[in-house]
Amino acid sequence: MAPIKVINASLGRTGTSSFCEAMDILGYKCHHMKKLLADPTYETSKPFYEAALNRDEADWDKVYAGYDVTTDFTGSYFWKHLFAKYPDAKVILTERPFEEWFKSMQNTIYPVIRSKIQYEPDHPRYALRQLSRTVVLEGIIEDDDKYMNEDFMRRYYNNHIEEVKRTVPANQLYSLKLGEGWEGICKFLGKDVPDVPYPKVNSTAEFNKKVSQTRARNEAIAAAAAAAAAT
Length: 231
Ligand code: A3P
Description:
The chain is an alpha/beta fold.
């Protein structure tokens, strides 16, 4: 289905999951890293990881086959390359104040990325784990000298937004403020306003509940595999 029609260039924890659901409601096919996590084989992570290792050479039509909207940390890590490849795409910034975003990061993505879990290269989850470590804040999340320096992070966050605003022509760019709803984005994309509320998902509490459920599931799978190996 590529080419990409809409690029959300914002970092994760800015309402990207709700945005992705909203795009699907409007008839697009949106890609979010959640879809990689939901793949039980984790095979679909591999093209994204390969693209992250070499953005200049990536075959974007292939990487995003079946999708026409990008978002989440992959979307923000790839946004400039995607916009160069699809210069007619519309670009969205899902925006929220730095302080709210940083608090949300601290309570969700940070502990997950910084958990001590490591996988060997032949493990099914290796590519997804390495992809996350590469794209989430371009690896800065693992550099405490930078990540724990709130002034540095404020500058990083705001510079990212400013770079998008400098690069994308104003008529191709829309800033969707977290919580604002359908009206503005539908007008920008030339779509009718749907008769369902704008999605509101992936709060800190929801995120952490899913992380616990995934951990329990993985532990159960590992325990079953160990039991089977012992018999
Ligand atoms: P909190 O972590 O502060 O609860 P993402 O999907 O990019 O990870 O972003 C999730 C964050 O956006 C969560 O913030 C979530 O509550 C917030 N969010 C998502 N949809 C929203 C909406 N429609 N209105 C307000 N906040 C929303």
